């Protein structure tokens, strides 16, 4: 028996398993590194989105303070003052969080400038509120005009927009880095799978070649020995027939298993296609929510414009009331002058009769002017009441719009979560489909091998005619196979 040192069949089999396992370990390490990078990028993206939301919150606090100040100027209602103080406190908290969270140097400069402008804004509105508390509402409105408060508000809004745009650019850069990391992860997995497949095929081919050589050598010895064996032919034929039947049953079972695997692959592909459709629908829902957010922003700007128009209408109504009061005073003075003129006409006797008629007409005109002034005052009071009601309705509308924006943002976040989950389902379905296809191919190869083995077993059963001699050589060949394996 040949005892020279060489690679045995079990060594080749171990090599065939170890090389793909090593490739998978290396790919798993690379994938873990990419996943850690993705986790870091995800944290930075989450921080950027939180900064964006806090900037929006600062803008919302400014709007609340502006509305509360206008409401306090119009009605001097304690609720408006409470809203102003709450918005101011909330703004202080959010700015402190932004200062601790923002790391971008340009964004920190924008935050410092924004803090300066908003402090001016708060000082201006606090001064107006103090004047209202001192019953100097007109002076508060005049301060707003002289200090050009609208320009300050516009400058703050522009700076907030710049901060949001910069944060959007940061998010876009991080998303680009994240997409590159995902691409590297996919490339790593694809290369690892390809290398594993190629190496497995190469090692498998070498194992098959090695096994074929050993089997061919052993089969030659068996064939040469089988021709010399003269006994036990019937038992060998029965054994071969039973083996052929077993192989046939195994082939049938493997055919059924192959059909089941192909059906599973088709179902996995259908599931992947359905998940792709759901992903497309989720993305469409996200875009619709974004359009709703844009529409809510436009509606909020229009409501603010209506509030400004109502403030100007209130000022003009107050001016009309002042003019009406002046007309009423003039009518009273005219009435007094007419009365004095009538007295003087009586003193004048015949010479003052014509003057008495004129003074009577002037008194009538003064009475009519006074009645008209009273009607105007009543109309002004009604208009002022309507304006106050409109202010309240406008404020409620603004709150409703803000609530709609918040709900739309929550809906957008939910759609984003759905899209991510569906994307994971798509990836898993595609991986399952690939695995099932590979199993179907492997099962088909096993079926072909079993069919070939079945044919060979039947030919062996029909080809055995005589077993006479060569038992020693047959045992020696069997020992060689045992040592090789």
TrEMBL record:
PROSITE patterns: CHEMOTAXIS_TRANSDUC_2 (PS50111). It comes from the Bacteria. Residues 218-454 form the Methyl-accepting transducer domain. The chain crosses the membrane at residues 12-33, 187-209. InterPro entries: CHASE3, MCPsignal_dom. Signal peptide: none annotated. It holds the Pfam family CHASE3. Keywords: Membrane, Transducer, Transmembrane, Transmembrane helix. Residues 233-266 are annotated as: Disordered. Gene3D superfamilies: Methyl-accepting chemotaxis protein. This is Methyl-accepting chemotaxis protein.
């Amino acid at each position: 028996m040949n005892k020279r040192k060489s690679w045995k069949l079990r060594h080749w089999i171990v090599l065939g398993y170890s090389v793909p396992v090593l490739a998978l370990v290396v790919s798993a390490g690379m994938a873990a590194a990419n996943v850690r990078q993705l986790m870091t990028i995800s944290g930075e993206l989450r921080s950027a989105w939180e900064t964006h939301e806090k900037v929006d919150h600062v803008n919302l606090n400014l709007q609340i303070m502006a509305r509360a100040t206008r409401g306090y100027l119009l009605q001097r209602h304690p609720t408006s003052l409470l809203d102003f103080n709450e918005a101011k406190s909330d703004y202080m908290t959010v700015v402190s969080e932004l200062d601790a969270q923002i790391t971008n140097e340009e964004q920190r400069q924008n935050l410092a400038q924004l803090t300066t402008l908003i402090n001016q804004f708060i000082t201006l509105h606090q001064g107006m509120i103090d004047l209202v508390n001192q019953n100097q509402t007109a002076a508060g409105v005049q301060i707003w005009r002289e200090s050009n408060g609208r320009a300050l508000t516009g400058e703050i809004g522009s700076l907030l927009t710049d901060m949001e745009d910069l944060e959007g650019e940061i998010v876009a850069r991080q998303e680009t880095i994240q997409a590159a990391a995902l691409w590297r992860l996919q490339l790593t997995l694809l290369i690892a799978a390809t290398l594993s497949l190629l190496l497995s095929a190469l090692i498998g081919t070498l194992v098959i070649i090695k096994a074929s050589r050993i089997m061919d050598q052993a089969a030659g010895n068996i064939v040469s020995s089988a021709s010399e064996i003269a006994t036990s032919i019937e038992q060998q034929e029965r054994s071969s027939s039973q083996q052929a039947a077993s192989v046939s049953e195994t082939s049938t079972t493997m055919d059924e298993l192959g059909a089941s695997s192909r059906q599973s692959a088709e179902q996995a592909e259908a599931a992947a296609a359905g998940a792709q459709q759901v992903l497309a629908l989720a993305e469409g829902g996200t875009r619709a929510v974004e359009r709703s957010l844009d529409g809510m922003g436009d509606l909020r700007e229009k409501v603010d414009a209506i509030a400004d128009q109502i403030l100007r209408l209130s000022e003009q109504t107050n001016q009309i009331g002042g003019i009406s009061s002046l007309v009423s005073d003039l009518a009273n003075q005219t009435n007094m002058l007419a009365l004095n003129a009538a007295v003087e006409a009586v003193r004048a006797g015949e010479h003052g009769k014509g003057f008495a008629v004129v003074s009577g007409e002037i008194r009538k005109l003064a009475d009519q002017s006074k009645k008209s002034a009273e009607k105007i005052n009543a109309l002004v009071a009604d208009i002022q009441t309507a304006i106050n009601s409109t202010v309240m309705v406008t404020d409620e509308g603004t709150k409703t719009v803000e609530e709609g924006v918040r709900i739309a943002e929550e809906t957008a976040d939910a759609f984003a979560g759905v899209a991510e989950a569906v994307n994971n389902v798509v990836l898993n379905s595609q991986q399952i489909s690939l695995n099932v296809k590979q199993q179907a191919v492997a099962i088909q190869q096993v079926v072909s091998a079993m069919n070939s083995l079945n044919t060979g077993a039947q030919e062996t059963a029909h080809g055995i005619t005589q077993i006479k001699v060569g038992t020693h050589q047959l045992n020696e060949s069997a020992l060689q196979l045992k040592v090789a394996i």
